[in-house]
Design a protein that fits this description.
329 residues; alpha+beta; Arc Repressor Mutant, subunit A; five-stranded antiparallel sheet; three-stranded antiparallel sheet
Length: 329
């Protein structure tokens, strides 16, 4: 929390230099403040150093030249055993002494500054958690979104963003509310969200809804799995109740990680190539042509792969590949 004088200075090369090197000289000042009572302003001259000594310090001299700040008033803002917050108030270099009124006036602001820092720290932690959660959700192949009872989407992962961005039967309005191309379906969807939100508050009994959303392109419809979600620990907002929406796009073919599959079953490099071509739908004749072998040899190679993986057909092998993959990108 800095005034425009410090903030503007911190964005200059001189400010970067000061922050990286000269600010370390102030560590002794912060240690001094840490031993003081909270909300009790302390003049810099009370740190046992004279004005001449302080003014000659490199950090003081640098700030005086670059920002016009000379004398300073320091104060500890909290008495927390886990972290330490303090601040300094800089005065114009033409003021040789800090007015007594400055200490008195600052006392009225200190509780509010301390609370502002406390709230800021809380939101910084929540923001970090939110980013970490979204980073994890972005690896999920299905679209994930959290909606309020009125249909407003408050959180969505990358796949949900992609799905809404297609505007193919389902999208978001300008104010972030979920919409479909059919007004009746939008109304039905809003009713489901309202019921699920009420369930999250313990006021209804709709624990899950499955809704098919037709696509204007004629492709396979989207499937929405809607379930209640409640922020019972108030990590985001006290009383936040809504719905967790899983958006499934059947046209979004999962990428088969043949490398993981072959490692799991100890397949050779050649057998791994056979698996990949099977997954691509190659026939025995096509596999033989690609491998430069006879159809009989290609058939034997497929048989070896099926035996190693414990399945009886190529279709079962593909299904097994899908089952052993985690639902993340």
């Amino acid at each position: 929390m800095m005034s425009s004088v410090y903030l503007d200075f911190s964005r200059t090369p001189a400010g970067w230099y000061y922050g990286a090197w000269l600010s370390r000289i102030q560590n002794q000042d912060w240690e001094f403040l840490q031993a003081q009572r909270p909300h009790e302003p302390v003049l810099d001259l009370e740190t046992s150093a004279s004005a001449e000594v302080l003014d000659a310090r490199k950090d003081y001299a640098f700030l005086r030249t670059r920002t016009g700040v000379a004398r300073r008033l320091g104060v500890r803002l909290n008495s927390d055993s886990v972290w330490f917050d303090a601040m300094s108030i800089g005065f114009d270099r033409h003021k040789f002494e800090i007015p007594q009124s400055a200490s008195e006036r600052s006392r009225a602001l200190l509780p509010h500054l301390a609370k502002a820092l406390e709230i800021g720290r809380l939101f910084a932690l929540l923001k970090a958690r939110s980013k970490a959660a979204l980073a994890a959700l972005d690896r999920v192949q299905a679209g994930i979104a959290i909606a309020l009872s009125d249909g407003q989407i408050v959180v969505k992962n990358a796949e949900a963003e992609r799905t809404f961005g297609l505007k193919d039967g389902i999208t978001l309005s300008g104010d972030g509310r979920i919409l479909t191309s059919d007004p009746d379906m939008t109304s039905k969807l809003r009713t489901h969200l309202l019921d699920v939100g009420s369930t999250a508050r313990g006021q209804a009994n709709r624990h899950e809804s499955l809704i098919s959303i037709a696509r204007q392109s004629g492709l396979t419809p989207f499937l929405l799995d809607i379930g209640p979600v409640s922020d019972s620990k108030a990590e985001l907002e006290k009383g936040l109740d809504g719905a967790l929406i899983t958006l499934i796009d059947p046209e979004r073919t999962p990428y088969l990680r043949i490398d993981r599959f072959t490692k799991l079953y100890g397949l050779t490099q050649a057998e791994s190539a056979v698996c990949r071509w099977i997954a691509d739908g190659a026939s025995i004749a096509e596999l033989a042509e690609r491998r430069g072998t006879s159809p009989t040899t290609a058939k034997n190679q497929i048989s070896t792969v099926l035996t190693k993986t414990g399945v009886g057909s190529r279709i079962e092998m593909i299904r097994l590949n899908l089952r052993v993959l985690p639902p993340v990108a």
